[in-house]
């Protein structure tokens, strides 16, 4: 669980999309592709879905991981599901395992987020790492070459209580939007690379 401030929207090429917008998945797929490495075969894609099923608001990451496990993607590895969550206790060991198991991994971090009331329900895509635990004042190692976060509730007061009282329906909708967009982006990139031998262009998202 991390924290998204107003100033954060101005940094790190961050893009935000409301999941209920009719074209949200197209915009989200394009944003994901803009942050992925252009050489499709040069990196293993590792998606680290951070969070725990013991807290409704913080279950976003594990739910995304669970949905992604239902898809088949070559050279893509998923860490963090409802059954095997990646959280504060095992995050360091998980990242050590990722580095040991995969050559040149490109890591996509997925996490829930607290933010301004006008941003609740938005999905944010940005370059660079996410800082897990910042939303509840925990200091954990940064994770990711890029990150995708879903803003599940308000920040600023009683963060643990806020997480426990987050609407499950919102978390489920955000998890489906993120997992579907990730799948489309990665599958399209993989398919285009196989068929043409060329790097993926985010324009392909509009043809799906």
UniProtKB/TrEMBL annotation:
GO biological process entries: proteolysis
Pfam family, one: DUF1256
Keyword entries, A-Z: Hydrolase, Protease
Keyword ATP-binding: no
Molecular function per GO: peptidase activity
Source organism superkingdom: Bacteria
Transport in keyword set: no
NCBIfam families: spore_YyaC
Protein's UniProt name: Spore protease YyaC
Organism: Sporolactobacillus sp. Y61
Taxonomic lineage: Bacteria, Bacillati, Bacillota, Bacilli, Bacillales
């Amino acid at each position: 669980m991390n924290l998204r401030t107003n100033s954060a929207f101005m940094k790190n090429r961050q893009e935000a999309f409301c999941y209920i917008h009719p074209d949200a998945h197209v915009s989200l797929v394009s944003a994901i592709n803009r942050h992925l490495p252009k050489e499709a075969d040069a990196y293993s894609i590792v998606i680290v879905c951070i969070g725990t099923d013991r807290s409704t608001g913080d279950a976003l990451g594990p739910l995304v991981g669970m949905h992604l496990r239902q898809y088949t993607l070559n050279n893509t590895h998923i860490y963090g599901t409802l059954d095997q969550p990646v959280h504060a206790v095992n995050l360091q060991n998980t990242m050590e395992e990722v580095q040991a198991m995969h050559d040149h991994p490109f890591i996509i971090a997925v996490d829930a987020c607290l933010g301004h009331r006008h941003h609740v329900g938005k999905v944010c895509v940005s370059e660079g790492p996410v800082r897990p635990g910042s939303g509840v004042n925990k200091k954990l190692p940064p994770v990711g070459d890029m990150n995708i976060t879903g803003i599940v509730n308000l920040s600023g007061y009683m963060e643990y209580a806020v997480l426990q009282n987050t609407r499950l329906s919102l978390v489920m909708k955000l998890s489906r939007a993120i997992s579907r967009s990730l799948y489309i982006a990665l599958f399209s990139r993989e398919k285009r690379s196989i068929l043409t031998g060329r790097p993926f262009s985010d324009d392909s998202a509009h043809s799906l």
